[in-house]
Write a structure and sequence with these properties.
Length: about 475
């Protein structure tokens, strides 16, 4: 396909959509129907801002003779991977290529699931980093649970293409961490799109970005002399918001029970903040919690127990190694850097062994970027964590370490049933590397999303460039 704009390719589809047949006029109601009581069930509405993502056209593809890291902890040597109809069809040796399939000689190459970044701000803090494009923090109130990150995503961010060249096939975009409640996250497939809905991972659950620690108390306490200005103010703000959301949820439930027998029943006034928080309480929205210190993570787990919800992932989690057993017991993931630490007090106790120690305790360890640069080499970030673990005596193999970049972030986001591992029936999101992906020399050679070849390091026509970057990058857009 051509660069990220795809305008010519998509315009034909718009013309077809506009040529829909006229809808027949329904017949007039009979007298019996007209006399019926005026209690009518509401018409089901499609989800707001639904995904319009459609996989790109793809041919069946056989990757032949590679070293395959499946993302399940298994390593296959001299193995084939067959992609059919956008799905992983089979893995093994000596697989037959279907008629018309593209056969790729992958001898000497390594094949992994596509990399997934569970913490990115691409699109909401795009390149170039200008104030007019800074759309990640709605820093106007400690509680902005009503905002959705997708309404800030700029699809022309050149960072998406750079991440693709690093093997990234999916990513979760979060609001920033200025607020206690920063807003909803959105999960994207790393593909071309004219709107964020064209990139939106179909069926992925929403997350809610919340932040404990220094950021909210600094933004509101120091700058505006309002709650929160302390960590106890943070906790009080969380509790008050969930108390209101619980009442809102209960009022909605009462209305649903009453309206069948009480035609005059009225629903509570719609509240977007409480809608999101009620989604958390109902288990529909996954909490993604920016939190550094071990003691605060434990307190946030206590908060979750008080109100009956789960914290899916602690992000940054610099001190996760101190409570790795607690995280394992609660089934909570930790999305971590390999070696960022010390840039503020709550990040002071970071150690390079953090990821390996969390993993060794049986908890869900995730390597994340939080950076438009780091997302381009997440494989090297995982390699640093792997090396730190080995130095302390942990035998971490490539087939295990790849789970930090694929299976575990898919779990953290809530899409592990569809992607993150190379298993028959899962999305054919695949990265082909020129060697061991944990080598400093490793580069992504080819990237497939839903079976379509979307990036090829050796083919300029398969090195996407966004509209914004046209004319600004070298010919072919190679990175």
């Amino acid at each position: 396909m051509k660069p990220y704009s795809l305008l010519a390719a998509l315009s034909g589809g718009l013309l077809v959509a506009c040529a829909a047949a006229p809808v027949a006029k329904p017949p007039a109601p009979t007298a019996a129907v007209a006399a019926a009581p005026a209690v009518v069930a509401p018409t089901p509405q499609p989800p707001a801002y639904a995904s319009t993502y459609r996989p790109m056209p793809a041919v069946s593809t056989l990757l032949r003779g590679a070293t395959v890291l499946t993302g399940t902890g298994e390593r296959l040597e001299n193995a084939d991977v067959l992609l059919v109809d956008g799905k992983v069809a089979a893995l093994g040796q000596g697989l037959a290529a279907p008629a018309g399939a593209a056969v790729v000689d992958a001898k000497g190459l390594w094949v992994t699931p596509g990399i997934i970044d569970a913490h990115s701000h691409l699109g909401v803090y795009p390149s170039p980093g200008m104030r007019s494009l800074s759309d990640g923090n709605e820093a106007t109130s400690p509680n902005t649970a009503q905002v959705w990150a997708e309404h800030s995503v700029w699809p022309q961010d050149p960072g998406f293409g750079a991440a693709l060249a690093g093997g990234v096939t999916s990513l979760m975009i979060l609001p920033g961490s200025a607020n206690l409640f920063g807003g909803r996250t959105v999960t994207l497939k790393n593909v071309a799109g004219r709107s964020v809905q064209d990139m939106k991972f179909p069926g992925a659950p929403y997350g809610l970005k919340i932040a404990c620690g220094e950021n909210p108390k600094r933004v509101y306490g120091e700058g505006r002399k309002m709650l929160p200005s302390t960590r106890m103010g943070n906790m009080a703000g969380f509790r008050n918001a969930f108390i209101e959301a619980r009442k809102y949820r209960d009022d909605l439930a009462k209305y649903e029970r009453d309206r069948a027998t009480k035609p005059d029943a009225q629903p509570p006034t719609r509240n977007l903040q409480n809608e999101t928080l009620a989604g958390v309480l109902n288990g529909e929205i996954i909490v993604q919690n920016h939190c550094y210190r071990a003691d605060e993570m434990v307190q946030m787990l206590d908060l979750a127990k008080e109100f009956g919800f789960r914290i899916g992932t602690f992000h940054h989690a610099v001190e996760a190694y101190k409570i790795a057993d607690v995280l394992a017991a609660n089934g909570t993931c930790s999305a971590m850097w390999a070696d960022w630490w010390g840039f503020k007090m709550e990040s002071l106790d970071g150690i390079r062994e953090n990821i390996a120690m969390v993993d060794a305790a049986g908890a869900c360890a995730v390597v994340h970027s939080d950076s438009d640069v780091g997302i381009q080499h997440l494989n090297q970030e995982a390699s640093k964590a792997m090396a730190a673990g080995r130095r302390m005596g942990l035998n971490i193999t490539p087939e295990h370490a790849i789970t930090w970049l694929t299976r575990n972030p898919a779990r953290a986001i809530g899409v592990a049933d569809r992607t993150g591992t190379l298993e028959p029936g899962k999305m054919a999101d695949v990265t082909v590397w020129n060697g061991n992906p944990f080598s400093v020399y490793a580069l992504a050679e080819k990237v497939y999303i839903d079976g379509a070849l979307v990036y090829d390091r050796h083919d300029p026509a398969k090195q996407p460039i966004t509209d914004f970057a046209l004319g600004l990058t070298p010919a072919g857009g190679a990175r």
